[in-house]
Amino acid sequence: MAPPLRFVHTADWQLGMTRHFLDADAQPRYTAARTDAVRRTGQLARERGAEFVLVCGDVFESNAVGPRVVARALEALADGGVPVYLLPGNHDPLDASSVLRSPEVRSAPGVHVLDAPGPHEVRPGVELVAAPWTSKRPLEDLVARAVAGLPADGTLRVVAGHGAVDALSPDRDDPARIALAPLEEALAAGRLHYVALGDRHSTTRVGTSGAVWYAGTPEVTDRREVDPGNVLVVELDGSSPARVEPVRVGTWAFPLVRAELDSDESLAALRERLTALPAKDRTVVTLSLTGTLTLAQKAELDDLLEAQRHLFAGVQEWERHTDLVVLPADAELSDLGLGGWADGAVAELAELAGRADPGGGGGGGGGGTGAGADPLVARDALALLHRLAGGGPRA
Ligand SMILES: [Mn+2]
Question: What is the reported pLDDT for 209?
């Protein structure tokens, strides 16, 4: 048996990715953070004495990323001084236009592209068994093909694959799904020792062997990801179970904040939750707000969110899961004390706002119940009026 092996397993860097919800201030900082995560991964590999970094697919967002993205990625990779193995994934498949075939990548010191399916020797007794993507739509289980016929001969083998495992993917019609059961058999038989996967952005242990993992993306890309921002430090000795340690390298967060708002207390609680979130300039909050607010409370909420938008990298509302109804409290409209024609407008809006929502219960919006007469719009208008009028006369 060869000496024990330690390496870093990562995937789904998708360098060159842009996010529609980031503004001109946040996008470049996010881009830089993703390159920094690559750099930290290389440094971690060096600190831990890892023999290599294995990137299991989707290194780049696409094969069309610009030369700046490639140059910065290669510079960040070189920083750790540890060899790097890159597997082509569905975002950067090894087709005729592949960025992984470019001379810049090919000639980068310490960078190896796993461009052929099957075993690649890292050192005597240690192999990477690669299942590279050569098109965006493979018609078979590439991992099954790559590992076929490997013997249990004492060689330490790490599989590098990309795509959905059948145990986690509901899409039975996808011919490229990776079959988990044969891999677990091969692990148990000592033909393989670890299966390193990419494609799933959440760090995920698959099955029961403890040796099949998705590393997840090293920097969050979507609020639906569970536990992103990690790379895995893996140790294998061929006889004991794989030791796998997730290590955080990401610095951004995309939290989902759900709140039921129906009182001053619930607004105060939302304020506290947002205030307590750390590293706001690297945090994109998605809000799912439901409930019923008075005009004054809606105005307070709008003030709160406006102030928070200056602090966070982004504050976005999850439209499908946002259902806030604004209903004026009894005294609120008369207390506005606008006088004259403005009072007449308030009365009209209040009458309209009091009508049933189109679609019965909000969420729809925009439909209207007559010629442009939409209760939701009327409520928003009242809330804005209330806010602009300073929330009515004060004592
Ligand atoms: Mn992918």
Answer: 95
What separation in Å is there between the alpha carbon of 110 and the centre of ligand 1? 24
Ligand 1 centre distance from Cα of residue 208 (Å): 23
- CB-CB neighbours of 355 under 10 Å: 14
Inform me whether the pLDDT recorded for 160 exceeds 80: yes
Residue where one domain finishes, among candidates 185, 218, 248 = 248
What is the pLDDT at residue 193?
97
The whole model's pTM is what? 0.86
Please report which confidence band the pLDDT of residue 357 belongs to, taking 50, 70 and 90 as the band edges. Answer: low
Angle at 378 between CA 377 and CA 382, to 5 degrees: 115
State how far the Cα of 125 lies from the Cα of 158, in Å rounded to an integer.
11
Instruction: Give the distance (Å) from ligand 1 centre to CA of residue 138.
Output: 12
* Residue 88 and residue 178 share a domain: yes
Domain count of the fold of the chain: 2
What pLDDT score does 391 carry? 57
In three-state secondary structure terms, 53 is strand
Ligand 1 centroid–CA 89 distance in Å is 6
**pLDDT at 363 (0 to 100):** 41
Cα 88 to middle of ligand 1, angstroms: 9
Cα 11 to ligand 1 centre (Å): 9
Of 197, 215, 248, which closes a domain? 248
CA of 176 to the centre of ligand 1 (A): 12
Q: What is the DSSP string of 109-124?
A: TTEEE--SSEEEEEET
What's the CA-to-centroid distance between 51 and ligand 1, angstroms?
A: 25
Residues 31 and 162 placed together within one structural domain of the fold? yes
Distance CA 249, CA 231 (A): 7
Closest CA to 313 of 30, 75, 100: 30
